[in-house]
Amino acid sequence: MKYALIILIVLLGAAVLYFKDQVLLSPHDSYYSALLRENLKATAEHWKAEAEKSLAAPLRISLPYSERHLLEVDYLQPITFAFDLKIDELIQVNIFPSINTRAEVFVDVFHVKDAATEPVRIGSMAAKEQQFKIAAEHTGQYLVRIQPSHAAQGLMDVTITSPLRYGFPVDTERENAVQSLFGVGRDGGARRHEGIDIFAPRGTPVIAAETGFVSRVGDTPRGGKNVWVRGDQRSFYYAHLDSIAVVAGERVARGDLLGTVGNTGNAVTTNPHLHFGIYKFAQGAIDPLPLVGRKKSLTTYAPPLVELAPRWLSVKTEKANLRSGPSLKATSVASLIRAELVQVDSVAGDWLRVTTGEGTKGFIARSLTQTPSESILTLTENYVAFYLPDDTAPVVGNFSAGDKLPTLGRFGSFAWVKMPGGVYAWAKAPEQENSTTH
Predict the structure, then answer these.
(1) Which helix (H) or strand (E) is 414 found in, with range?
(2) Scanning 46, 86, 251, 373, which has its CA 20 to 30 A from the CA of 238?
(3) Residue range 422-438: average pLDDT?
(4) Could you give the domains of the chain?
(5) pLDDT tens-place string over residues 214-250
(6) pTM of the model
């Protein structure tokens, strides 16, 4: 009996550890734990350290955003993107691996309360999934960290979007339909506008923005003919209707007819329009505009078609700005010079996300880069050649003072040189080494 009890305790302990690893940990943390269990401690610690480093230095983007990665074992680095969202807006991340891609991709979403606090993880994409969607619980900055497994190989496309959470409540595609916004003063400043006004011809269908049930229909001095629908832990208010097509207690799906646009209630002196409001439980009115958009539209984001770029390119202009985001409006984070090599990490439309020899990450316009041209480097000292531009990488050869080597440019303190036999390697050579155009 005693031994049976000991065995039972051991089994329960193992079950608790398994449950913690499989359920309480994120897929990212579980993968790190799996590497440790496989006695790959150095790999695991490096992988984790790179993730933390990336989280501390995000690149700022505007949504929607897309990029294409070439996954190679020697160049696997996580990337973290930063952007702002309003409360209840959606974050959607899609991973599209190409055929024959061998990789697990870990996606984690974080909220940044303020600059003084650490980012808080609010969600993670499940292992082996290709899409993750989550709503912003607060207005502010959010981070998306994307990290492939340590031995990933292949090609993948990434998109980060903020799709509209709800459908547009009026069956119109007029560009200027929304003309009165949330929060503006009403009644001489005595109250604020707790919704948006969507203008359309009288009789235009008013449709359910979200699935739910009709909690109330009425006719009031302020809202005129109105309908309340409860769903998604929110109440949706449709006012100034010309007619009502539902009854209290009725179940409605997104897109179902609720009534028609009018100007009843205190809108009798205005043009026909729908007053549309969203009320969040225990919080009150929230701005509907970021959640429904400005018009009814069936279009979805289509990433631009892009061609992969070589892993290494050089700057072709006298000077080029490395920017914090893929836009000419983005802040310049570094100034690059002609023939300077950059490591291409991904392609984002007409921009390249790159890393410089100093380790700075950012975006450069693809038009400002070119295939590196060859010159001759004359060495003044003996040097070793590394497999990568990293002095901890494997040594693949040696050079002697006076050697004249074809080179394709510099990356930080390394020169990319051609060894006998045509293989390229990286020599850690100071900038004062003599080079001549070939």
Answers:
(1) strand 414-418
(2) 86
(3) 70
(4) 2-161 (2.60.120.380), 178-287 (2.70.70.10), 317-368 (2.30.30.40), 375-437 (2.30.30.40)
(5) 999 999 999 999 999 999 999 999 999 999 999 999 9
(6) 0.85
